[in-house]
Amino acid sequence: MKRRLHGLYVLTERLKNRMSARFTPLGKVFLLLAALTLLFGINVERTMIYHIFSLTLMLLAFSFVLSLRFSPSLRIRRFLPATCVAGREIRYRVRLENTGTGSLRGVYFREAIPARLPDWHEFDAAREEKEERRNMFDRLMGYYRWLWLVEIGRKILPVEQPLPNLPVAATQEIEATLLPLRRGAVHLPGAVLGRVDPFGLCRREVLHDDECNLLVLPRIYAVPQLLFRGGRKYHRGGITAAREQGDSGDFLSLREYVHGDPIKHMDWKATARSGRPIVKQFRDEFFSRYGLVLDSFTEKKYSSVFEEAVSLAASVMLAQDSFNAVLDLLFVENECVTCTVGGGIDGQQRMMEILAAVSTCGDKPFSELAALVRSHAALLSGVVVIYIDLDRERRDLLEYLHIRNIPLKAVLLVEDDETMAREKKKHHDLPLQIFKAGEVEAKIGSL
After folding, report:
1. pTM of the predicted structure, to 2 decimals
2. Per-residue model confidence as pLDDT tens digits over 100-148
3. Which residues of 2-14 are buried (b: 16+ CB within 10 A; e: fewer)?
4. SS3 157
5. Edge-to-edge strand order for the sheet containing 171-180?
6. What is the pLDDT of residues 73-107, one digit of tens each?
């Protein structure tokens, strides 16, 4: 039964997309009118409604034929960025050159965004958030689940951009717009040029193949820089690419003096030989190192709470002092992952790309992440823990960090107010802040 329903939903969605690409909103009204007049005017001896049906059908057919005349000859070049941020509108340049024999009028431009439809296995295995609250009929039919999956698969919202009149052999640049909705990799097959017929009922769209990829980074919130009371710790050997901060260890090399370098590091003999101020460069072995722990353990393939956790992790990472401290991102996906940024390591963009692609982990125990954090705990001056659930193992990890006097900021993200109230009552003794998904941006200032 469900497999047949899935096939029906796929057919319906494809038909809806074809109708939207071929008919304007006014054209859809005319289609509905034609269907209604056909239904109620089928008895031509008792009603004259069939005249309305004939007129409506004639207008639609005439509009459809007129729309077929649109066949533009354009050379298009899009200047899209490699990355963008979810929720932030991006603007980019598009260069158009009319290579046809006539001028172009009344044409619009948009990106071609292919509709991602869930396959049968995804539809059968997925569960809509709060689906258990729906009535038995809705759960049996699964239509709301289907709509939810289709919406999740829509990562980019294209915006139609009207083009100015373009004479023959003319070249012009326009500014186009895209609205990224969700993080992840997006494949753009090309650009669409379209025009509406003079009656405003039908449209014709032509795809110009020009494939490219766009990486949508997680949403970014205004997070304050987190300050921990923990001091710097000794790291034998330092960090390979660390800049000059903290106490010095082994001598590395000589270099020119930079404003702010300690006078005690001046090499006076080298300065006298070169005529320029020269300082000794040492390997840094004392510095602040923080951990950012992301909880990815849930059986759901998609979770709005997990998406908020990823956005919060990205926001915390970008808000920290990457010059005077080092930040380690710790999480588990297919394997244990550690990503380091700061202290002279140019890794913020790389860490954002990792967070853009991270997914939930449903086949491994939380103990793997706990073991990873414990192995790094002795080196950390502070830890930020972002949870999407709080069971016994997760609570034990917080207690482990707290007992060892490691400065800690812990956040638990929940789905609704009821869960928030229950978790606050249950874990009131922990140094923990609880945020509801969807309200993190408004309340994150208290972190």
Report:
1. 0.79
2. 888 888 899 999 988 888 888 888 888 888 788 888 888 888 899 999 9
3. eeeebeebbeebe
4. strand
5. 74-79, 90-98, 171-180, 156-158
6. 888 999 999 899 998 999 999 999 988 888 888 89
Quote the CA–CA distance of 237 and 216 in Å, as a whole number: 36
Q: Where are the alpha helices (DSSP H) in 93-195?
A: 120-125, 136-141, 143-153
Q: Which residues contact 316 (CB under 8 A, 6 or more apart)?
A: 223, 226, 292, 384, 386
Among candidate residues 79, 76, 93, 77, the one with its CA nearest the CA of residue 174: 93
> What token pair was written down for 359?
């997914």
Domains 70-115+154-217 and 287-446 share a fold: no
For every residue of 252-311, DSSP letters joined together read EEEEE--TT--GGGB-HHHHHHHSS-EEEEEEE-EEEEEEEEE--B-S-SS-HHHHHHHH
Tokens matching residue 296: 């990815």
**What is the residue extent of each domain of the chain?**
1-67, 70-115+154-217, 248-284, 287-446
The two structure tokens encoding residue 390: 């709080």
Burial of 65 (0-12, 13-18, 19+ CB in 10 A): exposed
Assign residue 200 a region: left if phi > 0, alpha if psi is -120 to 50, beta otherwise? left
What number does CATH give the domain 287-446? 3.40.50.410
Residue-wise pLDDT for 313-334, tens only, equals: 998 888 876 666 778 888 887 7
CA dihedral 332, 337, 341, 346 (to 10 degrees): -130
CATH class of 70-115+154-217: mainly beta
Closest CA to 174 of 83, 100, 84, 98: 98
